[in-house]
């Protein structure tokens, strides 16, 4: 009954695809979730340990209906997934986290093998009732195929809500660049936990159905290499693509591995075909990662071409024919409703929007920021200048929550936020761009904008369950804003291209645009104009002036003093980690210290 193996493997590989293919969580303990489901189902159906004549022992046993047992198994797997996600809480580096999970997998199976009292140790459990009645692999024949494939179909519908929706887009953003995802306010730790929990449920359902089918379950079935077998289906089929993973599942675990059992034993060595199948599997993984990392069926991104734009009131101006970019920006920006919402939020009237007090950031022996004190007035563009290595980027990192200061305070809108996480700061409108642009390379350009919309309905549990009815309207509105921004920043031709294919200047432009999409209150821009073509430089400069007129507060790190002269209200000069001077550019030019810093730098 290869079809049963196909169905159960499929449920498992979809769950793993959610974790690894979509969200980038490399869960080497995935098979433990699956085993938890299998044991939970067994314990719920076998009845008390003493009743089975004492030939197998386990710590607890019930006899409930198979349907209830399946539900309990899924819940147990979700709980296990939740436990595994705790490993990610400490923000371990992703590769260390993967190793930690591998260790968990090996340790768990070793303990269960060794201790007869938990679930009968190494020999495992037998006589597990089939959910449809009867025992053994041929117990219920085609009925079981229908049951498994039916549940797989339901699983697919659930999975689609999670992966091929705005929620899935957020998960993919976490996969593509965790730091950038936090920068636009996504709670990465929580999202990782969600996919561990949901994926754990899928794994457990798979395990329970498998145990019920075989009628037995032992540690031999869930060695850590089984995770790798499932992983190979995801890698070969196509990471992040449910249909691709289905193909990969048919190909790898089912055909190659289960099929190995049907190969007549060669030269009298019974285990040879099976061992050989592991070799094939290993080679396949390497070949695919090397030559076709996207898999047989690559991830597809939805297209939002500008065809609909024709129906909108403003016709797209021909990109090359517009002689006056400032005019284009001036006409277009007032249409944005971005900034107004934040401006309406309460703020202590007589205090600066951002205050940095006596801030110290230390890297080993280097004081990158050395007792810096400065402030950013609401509604202004504050320039941040200084020679290379002065500590400008580090100051921005500390203010936005990406590095921990070893001393001092950061106050935003009257609240001390020194201890807040980066995502929490982004959530209250303190948003930054990076000196080296950080995009989500495997999302399209327009998706990079859509994903940045804060507090999306589609990111809530109701949104995932309720589907398009609940979030469709909001998504449509966001799409309108995103199109408008792409048009202003002359990126509309690139809308459906992967962000990873953009040139350096385009990436920088897109990153600023994405930051605007978060509806910021204070925007920290780390050299946004560096490397831009003169035309884009002009567009962006004009846009910043426009945004200030709409009430957006900004900090601008910039080397070109001419630009600082033109658009900054106040300027903070840094050198060697300290704030050297603060004031208007014209006055600062005259100061000897400032001149000296620039000559030395
Ligand atoms: P700027 O942006 O003004 O050019 P940076 O903030 O990037 O300056 O760097 C300030 C100082 O801190 C430099 O001496 C730099 O070498 C050091 N620095 C920055 N980031 C790190 C880091 N992650 N680890 C160690 N040193 C760093
Ligand atoms: Mg810098």
Nutshell version of this structure?
This protein is an alpha/beta fold. The chain has helices at residues 2-22, 30-46, 66-85, 94-114, 116-119, 141-163, 166-176, 178-183, 188-214, 224-237, 242-260, 272-291, 325-332, 338-343, 392-400, 422-427, 445-450, 461-466, 468-488, 504-517, 534-549, 561-567, 585-590, 592-600, and strands spanning 354-363, 366-376, 381-385, 407-412, 415-416, 430-432, 522-526, 553-557, 570-575, 578-583.
Q: If you had to describe this structure to a student in words, what would you say it looks like?
A:
Strand 4 and strand 5 form a beta hairpin. The termini are far apart. The protein is α/β, with parallel strands linked by helices and 601 residues long. It has two domains: 2-222, no CATH class; 326-597, P-loop containing nucleotide triphosphate hydrolases (Rossmann fold), CATH 3.40.50. The model is unreliable at 308-331 (pLDDT under 50). Strands 6-7-8-3-9-10 form a six-stranded mixed sheet, with helices on both faces. It has helices at residues 2-22, 30-46, 66-85, 94-114, 116-119, 141-163, 166-176, 178-183, 188-214, 224-237, 242-260, 272-291, 325-332, 338-343, 392-400, 422-427, 445-450, 461-466, 468-488, 504-517, 534-549, 561-567, 585-590, 592-600; strands spanning 354-363, 366-376, 381-385, 407-412, 415-416, 430-432, 522-526, 553-557, 570-575, 578-583. The structure holds adenosine-5'-diphosphate and magnesium ion (MG). Residues 363, 366, 368, 386, 388-394 line the site of adenosine-5'-diphosphate.
């Amino acid at each position: 009954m290869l079809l049963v193996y196909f169905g159960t493997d499929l449920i498992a590989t979809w769950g793993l695809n959610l974790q690894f293919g979509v969200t980038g969580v490399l869960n080497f303990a995935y098979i433990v979730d699956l085993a938890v489901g299998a044991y939970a189902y067994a314990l719920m159906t076998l009845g008390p340990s003493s009743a089975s004549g004492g030939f197998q022992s386990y710590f607890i046993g019930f006899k409930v209906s198979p349907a209830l047992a399946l539900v309990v198994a899924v819940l147990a797997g979700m709980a296990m997934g939740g436990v595994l996600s705790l490993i990610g809480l400490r923000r371990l580096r992703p590769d260390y986290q993967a190793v930690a999970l591998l260790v968990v997998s090996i340790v768990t199976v070793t303990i269960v093998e060794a201790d007869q009292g938990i679930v009968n140790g190494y020999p495992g459990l037998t006589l597990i009732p089939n959910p449809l009645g009867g025992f053994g692999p041929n117990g219920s024949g085609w009925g079981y195929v229908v049951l498994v494939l039916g549940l797989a179909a339901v699983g697919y519908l659930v999975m689609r809500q999670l992966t091929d929706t705005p929620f899935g887009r957020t998960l993919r953003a976490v996969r593509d660049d965790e730091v950038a995802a936090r920068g636009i306010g996504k709670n990465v730790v929580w999202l990782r936990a969600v996919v561990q929990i949901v994926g754990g449920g899928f794994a457990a359902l798979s395990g329970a159905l498998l145990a019920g089918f075989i009628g037995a379950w032992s540690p031999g079935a869930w060695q850590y290499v089984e995770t790798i077998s499932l992983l190979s289906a995801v890698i070969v089929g196509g990471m992040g693509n449910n249909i691709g993973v289905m193909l990969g599942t048919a190909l790898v675990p089912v055909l190659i591995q289960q099929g190995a059992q049907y190969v007549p034993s060669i030269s009298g060595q019974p285990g040879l075909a099976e061992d050989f199948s592991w070799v094939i599997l290993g080679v396949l993984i390497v070949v695919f990662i090397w030559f076709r990392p996207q898999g047989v069926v690559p991830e597809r991104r939805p297209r939002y071409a500008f065809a609909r734009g024709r129906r909108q009131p403003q016709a797209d101006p021909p990109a090359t024919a517009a002689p006056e970019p400032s005019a284009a920006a001036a006409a277009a920006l007032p249409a944005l409703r971005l900034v107004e919402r934040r401006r309406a939020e309460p703020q202590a009237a007589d205090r600066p929007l951002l205050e940095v007090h006596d801030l110290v950031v230390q890297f080993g022996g280097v004081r990158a920021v050395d007792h810096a004190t400065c402030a950013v007035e609401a509604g202004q563009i504050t320039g941040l200048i200084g020679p290379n290595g002065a500590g400008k980027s580090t100051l921005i990192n500390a203010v936005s929550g990406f590095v921990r200061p070893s001393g001092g305070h950061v106050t935003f809108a009257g609240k001390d936020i020194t201890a807040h996480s980066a995502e929490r700061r982004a959530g209250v409108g303190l948003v930054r761009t990076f000196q080296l642009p950080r995009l989500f390379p495997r999302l399209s350009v327009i998706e990079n904008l859509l994903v940045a919309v804060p507090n999306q309905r589609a990111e809530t549990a109701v949104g995932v369950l309720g589907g398009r009815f609940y979030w469709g309207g909001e998504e449509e509105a966001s799409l309108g804003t995103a199109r408008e921004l792409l048009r202003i920043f002359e990126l509309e031709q690139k809308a459906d291209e992967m962000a990873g294919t953009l040139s350096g200047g385009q990436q920088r432009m897109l990153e600023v645009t994405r930051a605007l999409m978060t509806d910021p209150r204070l925007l920290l821009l780390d050299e946004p104009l560096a490397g831009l073509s003169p035309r884009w430089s002009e567009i962006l400069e004009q846009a910043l002036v426009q945004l200030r007129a709409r009430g957006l507060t900004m900090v601008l790190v910039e080397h070109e003093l001419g630009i600082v002269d033109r658009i900054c209200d106040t300027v903070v000069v840094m050198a060697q980690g300290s704030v050297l001077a603060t004031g208007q550019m014209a006055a600062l030019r005259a100061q000897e210290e400032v001149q000296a810093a620039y000559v030395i730098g």
